[in-house]
UniProtKB/TrEMBL annotation:
Swiss-Prot/TrEMBL keywords: Membrane, Transmembrane, Transmembrane helix
Sequence intervals crossing the membrane: 34-52
Protein source organism: Halarchaeum acidiphilum MH1-52-1
This protein's name: Uncharacterized protein
Length: 54
């Protein structure tokens, strides 16, 4: 599997898990969920950008 596909899939999963976690959990864990969502968004963007630049 190509690198951009792995980044897009992993980023999407991390984004969904992080958003769900930040919504469903209390304050300390919600901050961690928001951080996971941010990392997922960055991975998703990196995967898409790597394919656009080619």
């Amino acid at each position: 599997m190509e690198r951009f596909v792995r980044l897009v899939v992993a980023g999407g999963i991390a984004l969904v898990v992080g958003l769900w976690g930040s919504h469903a959990l209390a304050w300390p864990a919600a901050a961690l969920g928001a951080l996971v969502a941010l990392c997922g968004l960055c991975a998703l963007g990196a995967g898409i950008a790597s394919e656009i630049e080619r």
